[in-house]
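Sanity check

After download, print the first record. It should look like this:
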Amino acid sequence: MIAEQLEKIQFMMAHRRFREAEATCRQVLASDPENAQVMGLLALTEQNQGKQNEALEHAKMATAFAPDQPFPHYVLTLIQCEIEDWKSALAAIENAIQLDAANPDYFALKAMIYLRLRTWKPALDAANSGLALDADHVNCLNFRAEALRNLGDKDQAMHALQAALEKDPLNAWSHVAMGHQLLNSSDYEKAGLHFREALRLDPGNPGARNGLLTVLKAKSPFYRPILRFFLLLERMEGNSAFYLIIGFFVLRRILGYVGEQMPALQPFLFPIFILYLVFIWATWLVDPLHNSFLRFHPWGRFLLTPYEKRASNALLITLGLSIFSFVLGWTSQNSLGIDAALMGAFLTIPLSHTAGLPPLKGRNLLWGYCALLLGLTVYALLQIRAESPSGPNLRLGVFIGCALFSWLANLVVLRNR
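Expected structure tokens:
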């Protein structure tokens, strides 16, 4: 009887009838409340309906009912991956592998988790372990290719992706992986073809959507150098990208110190400092800025998520007000308008970035920080208008506060990994 019900649940899930599958799971659990396999399937049906809290709770219950069965640990891993709790997911998949070390799907999932943790060598080892069990395992081939690409072995990565596409040319994720490989090689046209094919095979594929958005943005000569910088950051392991950003900040402090000790060099150091500020501004705003242009593109407007549109709205409103203030100040020869424009331009960084964040721990902290910056900006403008001696210092405080936002936002993101 249970076997028939399990087969029925799996059939409904395969046909994406998750609500019916959930109801059937609950019927079975009413008579057998500690059935770990059905509890795990219930968690998966809830996950596919966006009920992440219920899914996580039921997945944990399944592992408690049958700690010696690998399937509940596998389900728990999937749900923890969905909520991006990568460290807990890694512990769960390790438990599944200890109980069943002959399942290549488990090693594929382990490789994917290591990739999200940006630890390329362990990801490669996990993918190779899965391929030792099944040389044609498509997911292991894809994750092996991604690890190799980030380790700098582009030839082997391309070979692995070609093998994956030969085994399963209708696998959307293989086309996504190939698209990213070509994107890293600056072959934007071919990358776009693979991302579009992935969307044809799986219209809701987030990797294909993000990849195609990147290809559309890469047509801009302004975006391409920043894209190369972003791809460099992606290839760095762990928190290396964050340390590189700290390095830029330390370099700026060194330049400032050199300028104080050797005033004759200040005319040469000041342009470097301005370029640094423009670089920081551009790296934080290049995505929402190009997303704003893509809203008028025949494909781009359908590819943007609600969060990306919110970031675009915040950018357009803040930048629009800054431009209006600049024009008003310039035409009326009123320096207050120029000050408002400059501070508004820097406020686009915290406002657009925070508006584009999905729900995560620390987002309310960032909104509070944005409110503090807005209040400081208004107070600074009032003091500048009153010709108070504190006005210029408050204006500098707004600039420093916007620069510090990048540190705070990175810490929030790292905390959620």
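If your output differs, re-run the checksum step. Summary of this record's structure: The first helix runs from residue 2 to 14.
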